[in-house]
Amino acid sequence: MQGGANDSRQSLTPGACNGLAHVAVGADRRELLGLGPLVSSIFSSSRSPHCIHVHVFREGESSPQSKEAIRRIGRGSITVRALDSERFLLLRNLSSSSALNLARFYLPELLPETAASVLWVDADIIVRSDVHSLLAGLFTGANRLSPLAAVARDQDLVTHYRGGLERGLRRLRSPAELALDEAWGYDMSAILRGDAFNAGVTAFNLRQWRAEKLTQRVEALVPALQRLELASYRGISLPGGKSAAPSSQVPLQLLFGRDFQRLDACWNVGGLGTSWEAEELLPVRVWATQLHAWWTGRLASGCALHWTGGDKPWSGHNAFARRWYTPAAKAAAREGYDEIFPPSDAHWSDRDDPELLARIGILAALVVVVTCGAFFCRWAAGGCSRSFGYPWRRLAARESQVDERESKGEP
Predict the structure, then answer these.
(1) Residue 112 domain-assigned?
(2) What's one GO MF term for it (predicted)?
(3) Cα–Cα distance, 289 to 273 (Å, whole number)
(4) Distance CA 191, CA 207 (A)
(5) Cα separation of 9 and 223, whole Å?
(6) Does residue 100 belong to any structural domain of this protein?
(7) What Å distances lie between residue 51 and 176, 226, 278, CA to CA?
(8) Exposed, middle or buried: residue 231 (CB in 10 Å: 0-12, 13-18, 19+)?
(9) Which of 214, 261, 10, 302 is nearest to 119 (CA)?
(10) Are 323 and 400 contained in the same domain?
């Protein structure tokens, strides 16, 4: 495993470049708010920020002011460009969000030929360790032919995230239905035994991708997954009759689940965007996540903190943002990254978060039930007595008089 948590604790003194480290990130309008803190954290966590080139693929063109701000900050090399989805087979007829998610498969073409490797980082991440040192140690020795590097999931998460995919794969008559023919050397049982990993922090061996034409393999696999309704772990429907949105996670898992270099677990500390699902008790999951993070110290030692889930760090109500994200966001603003990635370009609303809407709906229903129950109790206790209070009071008084006479021995 590569790149332990101690990397970010070393003194960040400039050094000579031992090769340029390439980092890539894609962000739609809802994720633009995360770009400033992310890019700032990449440079500020490195001993050699001048040896890092960050490639940002975004929705829409950058303004002239943004390009000028890139030149002015000058901390590291940044390239920002709009993604031309019509140029690439898998990206056509997809939403901007889906196209940017799959853009990582075209990094061998999008990046210069001189780039031997690249680290893909999702926009909902804060980096706290040196990506230059990480990339310098990857794809060497026994791992020189590995197509990618990632953090393997815990086994309990493997079962949770891959269960539906595994059931779907077992419905297949043969691997050929997924374009996994014998020439590729894959068999279904080996695929199902492979380790799962989260694609949010993934290093790509670009030399190997180009030599083995791995992008073409992905282009053959994804349409087959879509036909079999296995293109993503969770179904996504798009307006306007567009095709179902495939996930980058599934093809990466199928093709490389048994053939990837393992990164140190600190490089993808996920679960910080923990959100509430319908079958779960509302606050318990967040509390459990926070308690586990405190007990294990995994946040304090994390090299890359990942807000997986529906509650993104810029939403304004994330439980982990105040301590772990807000300082990075403030530092990015001080350094001028808001000029490169203006918040005005972003489009984020709680209305864009379907899980939050579901949570609000559940809470609203609970409020209605409790309120109605309270009104019913008041009606039963007070309303009835007001409506029928007089006869009830007369009956109570008569019974009291009878009891009093009986106590005195009167007839």
Answers:
(1) yes
(2) metal ion binding
(3) 10
(4) 24
(5) 44
(6) yes
(7) 44, 40, 46
(8) buried
(9) 261
(10) no
